[in-house]
């Protein structure tokens, strides 16, 4: 298709016009068509500049179109356009976002061939991406290289270094050493430095050290951010210091610092594990009233908590809220609710949720296999007492779906059908049980024998009645 048919440009195209049009176009491919059609009008003498190139590169990177973005770099070089480091960094950040740290390094190395000398900003950006991606070996090598290239340590670069060291339990002392030496290097630790260390300490369970740092931070007039508060709240909850965590939550709100989803989730988890699920539910209401959307973790935490306290009605309500929000409960959550109903002998309800789960297409995978097996077996065993026919149907559906049936389930089914006098089903179950390599226990054998014996007696009684009738 000719570019003329795509777009009618005015006689004098300006870069500002092109920037405006590319910004307005939602579809990245159409934006590229606009970009190309501007230069097709070469008679007007239009040439792309660093602004139009830069914008187009960042649009392509946002759409994960890395190849075309790098092709544009080559075009900039051909057209002798000034390439600034920000264009390279936008590509680096894009690769970081899709977890490709080696491509980040490759693009960083290409800066030189374009005559673009990386500044401190470039080095720190790449270093931070490597740490974020947990490529710590490469990150430390890169940090040494950065120092060799004459980049002096700054608060930002030392913060990233501390973050890298905090990721490794053996290196936390090294992180603290750097932190303590920062003032000597003319760098004052900021709230990010403290936050990183506090987070590292909490993750390693060093909650007292984290609290000390938090106190020191406030003395130094470093305002804790929502992230710092959340790290500490999470750490306190993990160390079963839920009251302290709630105190900190109150303090943070009184300072006007808005809790985020993680803050709420950590507290709910702590409260639920401490047997205070009703307080956790209040937090859910507060969270929703602040327009925060609970996520899978929030809901799992709450369902775990209320099921542990036997509040199944609440568990079902939370499950409904989840579904209304468009989140799909997983096998673990259904498992909690089904087990909860089995614990209070409400096997019909348990079976209803089991059906809902199966109909919802939640089938076993490697990780959830044991959950599926466990809940199917306990529901069948429970139904044997209250609804043998439903138990049998569920048993059949387990067989067709290849979910393992344990010996207790076989024995419960066989015994239950013998007692009902349905010997055909009992015989079938025993046969399938033996084929499956399970040996019926003594109780099952005696039930079977009793069942057949009763039938024998019934037959004799019928014959006697028949003889009786015939002789009259």
From TrEMBL:
InterPro entries per the UniProt record, alphabetical: PPR/CCM1_RNA-binding, PPR_rpt, TPR-like_helical_dom_sf
Superkingdom to which the source organism belongs: Eukaryota
Membrane-spanning segments: none
Claim: Cell membrane is one of the keywords in the record: no
Pfam families in UniProt: PPR, PPR_1, PPR_2
Repeat positions for PPR: 84-118, 119-153, 154-189, 190-224, 225-259, 260-294, 295-329, 330-364, 406-440
Alphabetic keyword roster: Repeat
Protein family: Belongs to the PPR family. P subfamily.
Name used for this protein in its record: Pentatricopeptide repeat-containing protein
Organism: Acer negundo (Box elder)
């Amino acid at each position: 298709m000719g570019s003329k048919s795509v777009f009618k440009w005015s006689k004098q195209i300006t870069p500002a016009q092109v920037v405006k049009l590319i910004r307005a176009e939602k579809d990245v491919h159409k934006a590229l068509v606009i970009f190309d059609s501007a230069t097709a009008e070469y008679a007007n003498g239009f040439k792309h500049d660093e602004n139009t190139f830069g914008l187009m590169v960042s649009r392509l990177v946002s759409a994960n179109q890395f190849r075309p973005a790098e092709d544009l770099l080559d075009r900039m070089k051909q057209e002798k356009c000034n390439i600034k480091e920000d264009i390279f960094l936008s590509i680096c950040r894009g690769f970081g976002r899709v977890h490709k740290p080696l491509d980040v390094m490759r693009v960083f190395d290409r800066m030189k061939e374009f005559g673009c000398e990386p500044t401190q900003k470039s080095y720190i950006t790449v270093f931070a991406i490597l740490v974020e991606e947990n490529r710590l070996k490469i990150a430390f090598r890169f940090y040494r290289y950065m120092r060799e290239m004459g980049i002096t340590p700054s608060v930002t670069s030392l913060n990233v270094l501390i973050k890298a060291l905090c990721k490794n339990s053996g290196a936390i002392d090294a992180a603290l050493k750097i932190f303590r030496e920062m003032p000597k290097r003319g760098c004052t630790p900021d709230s990010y430095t403290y936050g990183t260390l506090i987070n590292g300490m909490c993750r390693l369970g060093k909650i007292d050290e984290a609290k000390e740092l938090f106190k020191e931070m406030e003395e130094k007039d470093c305002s804790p951010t929502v992230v710092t508060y959340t790290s500490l709240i999470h750490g306190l909850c993990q160390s079963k210091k839920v009251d302290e965590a709630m105190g900190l939550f109150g303090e943070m709100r009184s300072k006007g610092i808005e809790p985020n989803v993680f803050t709420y989730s950590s507290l709910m988890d702590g409260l639920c594990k401490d047997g205070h699920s009703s307080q956790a539910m209040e937090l859910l209401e507060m969270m929703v009233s602040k327009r925060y959307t609970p996520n899978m973790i929030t809901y799992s935490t709450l369902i775990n908590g209320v099921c542990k306290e036997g509040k199944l009605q609440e568990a079902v309500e939370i499950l409904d809220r989840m579904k209304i929000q468009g989140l799909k409960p997983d096998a673990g959550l259904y498992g909690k609710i089904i087990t909860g109903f089995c614990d209070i002998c409400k096997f019909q309800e348990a079976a209803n949720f089991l059906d809902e789960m199966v109909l919802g297409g939640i089938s076993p995978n490697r990780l959830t296999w044991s959950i599926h097996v466990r809940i199917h077996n306990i529901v069948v065993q429970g139904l044997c007492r209250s609804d043998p026919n439903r138990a049998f149907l569920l048993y059949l559906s387990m067989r067709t779906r290849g979910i393992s049936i344990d010996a207790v389930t076989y024995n419960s089914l066989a015994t239950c059908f013998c007692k009902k006098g349905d010997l055909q089903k009992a015989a079938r179950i025993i046969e399938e049980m033996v084929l499956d390599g399970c040996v019926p226990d003594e109780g099952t054998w005696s039930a079977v024998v009793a069942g057949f014996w009763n039938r024998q007696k019934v037959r004799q009684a019928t014959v006697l009645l028949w003889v009786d009738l015939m002789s009259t």
